[in-house]
Design goal:
It is globular and about 40 Å long. 29% of the residues lie in helices and 26% in strands. The strands form 2 sheets. Strands 3-2-4-5-6 form a 5-stranded parallel sheet. A 3-stranded antiparallel sheet has the order 1-8-7. The chain is built from 5 helices and 8 strands, in the order βαβαβαβαβββαβ. Helix 1 crosses helix 2. Strand 2, helix 2 and strand 3 form a beta-alpha-beta unit. It is of the alpha/beta class. The protein has a single domain, classed as Rossmann fold (3-Layer(aba) Sandwich).
């Protein structure tokens, strides 16, 4: 009889990455992107609203510092492409997609903060295909927490973080949240909220 798989135990509400760890992960991802994509002039970084866009801007700065030329950066809103739109909120917030360049024949690096089921990325791929036909689409994420429901994997990962389904991975970035960290927190259910 095989032994059960053991996974690292996480205390809920625990910080797993601090600001310096996030910075180092992004520097490493930037170098990995450049190793795989020899012509950095044909790169476009497209961040999924909203934290993915902030991460895309940071990665662009890292790549620009290495390559000494600007990198195309865009923001992608996938709200209307989601297959769970009716479940996420009665009136979901639709942000703007801001991609002011042609995606055709470009190597697109799609960027998000957390890769979980894969459904957000599926929606993002549909949105990108409506905007053009890139040469390639690669995926970079700060956190891969597992539990995939679709056959989607990241090409570049800041940190693989095994989680329970009962946990949430929260990414906090200075640009949006006023603090910089990644934390594992308990999933809040309706029974946890006082009446």
């Amino acid at each position: 009889m095989s032994e059960p798989l053991l996974r690292p135990a996480h205390r809920e509400g625990t910080r797993v990455l601090d600001a310096e760890m996030i910075r180092r992960a992004l520097v490493r991802i930037a170098h990995e992107i450049l190793e795989r994509n020899k012509d950095s002039q044909k790169l476009a970084l497209v961040g999924i609203h909203s934290r993915g866009y902030f991460l895309a801007q940071r990665l662009a700065r890292e790549i620009e510092g290495i390559e000494k030329h600007p990198v195309l950066v865009g923001a992608l809103d996938i709200t209307l492409y989601r297959d769970d739109l009716s479940m996420i909120a009665p009136h979901p917030i639709v942000r703007s997609t801001d991609i002011a360049f042609d995606l055709t024949h470009v190597d697109v690096i799609l960027i998000d903060d957390v890769l979980f089921t894969g459904r957000t990325i599926r929606a993002a791929l549909n949105a990108i295909n409506d905007l053009g036909r890139p040469k390639t689409i690669q995926l970079a994420v700060l956190i891969d927490r597992g539990h995939r429901e679709l056959p989607i994997r990241a090409d570049y990962v800041g940190k693989n973080l095994p989680t329970r389904l009962s946990e949430r991975v929260e990414v906090y970035l200075n640009e949006r949240d006023g603090k910089e960290e990644v934390a594992i927190e308990p999933q809040v259910t309706a029974t946890d909220v006082p009446l």
